[in-house]
Amino acid sequence: MPSWSAVPFAMNVPDAVLADLRERLERARWPGEVPGSGWEYGSNLEYMRELVDYWRTGYDWRAHERELNRFRHYRTTVDGVGLHFIHERGAGPKPLPLLLLHGWPGSVYEFASVIPMLADPARFGGDPADAFDVIAPSLPGYGFSDPTRERGFGIQRMGDLFARFMDLLGYARFVAQGGDWGAVISSYMGYAHPDRLLGIHLNMLGVAPHPEDRVNPPLSPAEQAFLKEAEEFQRDGAGYQWIQGTQPQTLAYGLNDSPVGLAAWLVEKFRAWTDCDGEVERRFSKDRMLTLIMIYWVTETINSSMRLYYEVRHHPWRLKKGERIRVPTGFAAFPKEIVRPPREWAERVYKVNRWTAMPAGGHFAAMEEPEALVREIRAFAREFR
To answer: Is 180 labeled as catalytic in the residue annotation?
Structure first.
């Protein structure tokens, strides 16, 4: 095997980047809006002014940078791709390797609360036997990993890369967990690398059954209701998918140049996809939202992160007729997720070993309900220890 190494890494954004950001925030040119329209047309003007004012005068990136740097960060190259990752060794008798995969518009910052609980359960009142070696990479094209620059860098390429990455780290078999793109990549890994995966745990549906596999058995009433709900989301809530999946480069000029534009594009998703009843700060403080936004801003990866939608649209991975993902699968069904499949729909695709209807939470489960998600991952993984 060729020599391979990972070097320690720390986030240290240049002062010039932060000064440039402040100047851009101070020069923001605000759009008008329809009076009384709230969030109906998109991110609300009054709220965005409030958020940006706090970003300019109260938010402290350096404090959050220090918080993130308490983890063990590394940079490496896998198959020519520069990859950033967190690697926290478990504090227990026999830690189980766990690959945590984020999605869009997320980052490894989503896992800041769950990583310590997963790696050192005894510190939080848990059983040391539930400890994990936690590996949380920034997806290629996201955050402190390198931007992607090749055509076709989609789900298949990422799944194969992470299987190779875990091999280089010395983990012959492991559990993968994810939501959003992380759920899709984990599902692909379970399909393409079943000998490497002990199991996969998802908090969002990763892949749908082939159309012909939706006939036998016939769709249940719950499945029919789910498909109607998914159709409504595609009509009313998926505009970002169409733009990012067709012309991401055009959108990137505005989002990479304007921090206010970037924040408005992402905050609308934080509000719409969380269990917040329209009040985003019931789930995400301004500091948490701005730290997620900052990781895209300081790395200038909003373009390459959105490009994944284009690659998936033009180079899709779909199951063929009769194909299933046969590794054990756990599913945490959060009530305010973007789409909410019933168990019988998931069982057309996955070998579902554990299915839990969660009492609260939405799309950003690791940030919204960290303790509940950790309990589910621990419970699912015990059969593999």
So the answer is: yes
Single out the catalytic residue among 296, 309, 310, 350. 309
pLDDT, tens digit, 9 for 90 and up, residues 5-23:
999 999 999 999 999 999 9
Instruction: State the Cα angle at 293 between 292 and 294, rounded to 5°.
Output: 95
CATH code for the structural domain at 7-384: 3.40.50.1820
| Given the residues 180, 191, 201, 275, the one annotated as active site | 180
pLDDT at position 3 over 90:
no
Whether pTM exceeds 0.85: yes
The verdict on whether 363 is a catalytic residue reads yes
Q: What is the pLDDT of residues 185-206, one digit of tens each?
A: 999 999 999 999 999 999 999 9
Residue 36 corresponds to which tokens in the numbers above?
């009384």
* Whole-number Å distance between alpha carbons of 92 and 98: 14
Distances (CA, A) of 361 to 225, 274, 365: 21, 7, 6
Helix residue spans in the chain (DSSP H): 15-26, 45-57, 61-68, 114-119, 155-168, 181-192, 221-236, 239-246, 248-257, 259-272, 286-299, 302-314, 343-346, 365-368, 370-381
Beta bridge partners, 246, equal none
- What is the residue extent of each domain of the chain? 7-384
